[in-house]
């Protein structure tokens, strides 16, 4: 009888101890989880540059509180209506630098920094560096001039280290790097360079020269004429008077001396 009571008491103690242990464990785990995790706003799917954020496309994801994210958001309502400048992967916390300023517009406009301009220029399929121009590429812009005033064609670098915003209608590069021939290229330019590009497009043929994106060297550009392709320098231009006329040729003078007589005669 005593043995049965002792066994019952022991089992009851074990059950009570297990229940208390389970309760305390849940309490401690819940406290630790709450204190070590921060919730940030992230997209529920992958976003492309230019997309406008909608509440149904946003979720809250957990992030270690010991690794805070500068510029992250904790409330979905703070992001509704903002446009993303760069692609954002699903469940990746959205940071403020990824977003365009409120009211800056949508689409391509959000990728234009303040003070810059997006200028498009038509081209044929040959001048696109065999199709290997992608959004984000850096190029030099060359123009070959031909006109009645300059009958000899000359090629000149007019812009250097210019960023390509779009090729055709695409603002993002092909994920597999597939080349594509396009007829319109949009460049990111300062207002002054935009004027140069528009003027150059009306004066000759435009050619893009692809350069290393990390190379920002500016070279001294000099026009190249056909004569220089064969190693012969350009023909010197004739001297011109300030009024735009050729200088008047002086007549040849011949002096004749016969004894003590001296005569001169001019020949045109």
List strands and helices in order, with pairings.
Blueprint: H1 2-36, E1 37-43, E2 58-64, E3 117-122, E4 138-145, E5 154-167, E6 184-189, H2 191-203, E7 204-211, E8 224-225, H3 226-229, E9 252-258, E10 261-267
Brief write-up:
This protein is of the alpha+beta class and 268 residues long. Helices cover 19% and strands 27% of the residues.
Could you please describe the fold and organization of this structure?
The chain is of the alpha+beta class and 268 residues long. The protein has 2 domains: 36-111, Alpha-Beta Complex (Type Iii Antifreeze Protein Isoform Hplc 12); 112-229. Helix content is 19%, strand content 27%. The protein is built from 3 helices and 10 strands, in the order H-E-E-E-E-E-E-H-E-E-H-E-E. The strands form 3 sheets. Strands 3, 4, 5, 6, 7 and 8 form a 6-stranded antiparallel beta sheet that branches. A two-stranded antiparallel ribbon has the order 1-2. Strand 4 and strand 5 (154-167) form a beta hairpin. 15% of the residues are buried. The mean pLDDT is 77.
The end-to-end span amounts to 153 Å
Question: Which regions have little confidence, pLDDT < 50, spanning 5+ residues?
Answer: none
Number of strands: 10
The topology string of helices and strands comes to HEEEEEEHEEHEE
Overall morphology: rod-shaped
Q: Give the helix/strand class.
A: alpha+beta
Tell me the Rg in angstroms: 38 Å
Helix content: 10-25%
Count of alpha/pi helices: 3
- Share in β-strands: 25-35%
Q: Average pLDDT across residues?
A: 77
Largest sheet properties:
6 strands, antiparallel
Number of domains: 2
């Amino acid at each position: 009888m005593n043995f049965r009571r002792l066994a019952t008491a022991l089992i009851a103690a074990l059950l009570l101890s297990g229940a208390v242990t389970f309760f305390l464990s849940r309490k401690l785990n819940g406290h630790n989880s709450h204190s070590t995790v921060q919730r940030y706003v992230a997209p529920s799917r992958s976003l492309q540059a230019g997309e406008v954020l909608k509440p149904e496309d946003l979720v809250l994801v957990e992030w270690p509180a010991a690794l805070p994210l500068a510029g992250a958001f904790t409330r979905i309502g703070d992001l509704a209506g903002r446009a993303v400048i760069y692609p954002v992967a699903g469940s990746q916390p959205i940071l403020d630098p990824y977003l365009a300023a409120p009211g800056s517009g949508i689409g391509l406009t959000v990728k234009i920094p303040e003070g810059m301009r997006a200028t498009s220029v038509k081209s044929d399929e040959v001048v696109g560096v065999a199709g290997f121009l992608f959004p984000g590429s850096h190029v030099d812009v060359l123009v070959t001039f031909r006109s009645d005033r300059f009958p000899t064609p000359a090629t000149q670098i007019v812009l250097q280290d210019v960023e390509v915003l779009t090729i055709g209608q695409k603002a993002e590069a092909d994920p597999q790097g597939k080349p594509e021939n396009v007829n319109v290229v949009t460049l990111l330019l300062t207002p002054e360079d935009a004027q140069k590009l528009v003027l150059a497009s009306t004066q000759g043929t435009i050619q893009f020269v692809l350069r290393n994106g990390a190379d920002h060297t500016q070279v001294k550009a000099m026009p190249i004429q056909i004569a220089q392709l064969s190693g012969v320098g350009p023909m010197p231009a004739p001297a011109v008077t300030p009024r735009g006329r050729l200088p008047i040729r002086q007549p040849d003078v011949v002096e004749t001396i016969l004894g003590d007589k001296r005569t001169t005669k001019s020949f045109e």
